[in-house]
Amino acid sequence: MFMQDEPTLKFHGGMFMSFIPVVIYALVCATLFIYFKAFNMEALAAGGLVALLIGGLACTSYQKFWEAAINGISSIPSVSVIVILLMVGMFSALVKLCGLSNGFVWLANYTGIHGSLFVAFTFVATCIVSTATGSSLGTMFIAFPIFYSAGLALGANPMMMAGSIV
């Protein structure tokens, strides 16, 4: 039998109320990505903070909720993920400023790659980026600004481009 040393958090309305922050954050992500087509790290962080604030209200002890949240955030794996995402965000901003997407359009035109062939190239390139970052979200933040607009400029199907990146 599994014994838990640490006390668990109690929520008004039962443990299903603990899913409130997750649901709110998923809705924020879906709204940002699907409706606004915005890939912004600051907006995602703000959505996470709002989800935690609202989720804390569902907990019977606001102080214990935030102690648990801080313990989770300050763990070594969490800090590693945060640092990786910050580096990916900086790299993504640098790539956008350098106009790398325009370079891919030029290179594809020069080599004769258009449409579906560029979708296949994007898939392979995104797989390589994903291996390097180790983060699916970080990969999307890097790949969408570079490849998606270049693929559309080269006549690729928008759905296939999005699928090759995701």
From TrEMBL:
Q: Which InterPro entries has this protein been placed in?
A: NhaC_Na-H+_Antiporter (IPR052180)
Q: Which UniProt keywords apply?
A: Membrane, Transmembrane, Transmembrane helix
Per its UniProt entry, which superkingdom is the organism in? Bacteria
Q: What is this protein called?
A: Uncharacterized protein
User: Where are the bilayer-spanning segments?
Assistant: 15-36, 43-63, 75-95, 107-131, 137-156
Does Membrane count among this protein's keywords? yes
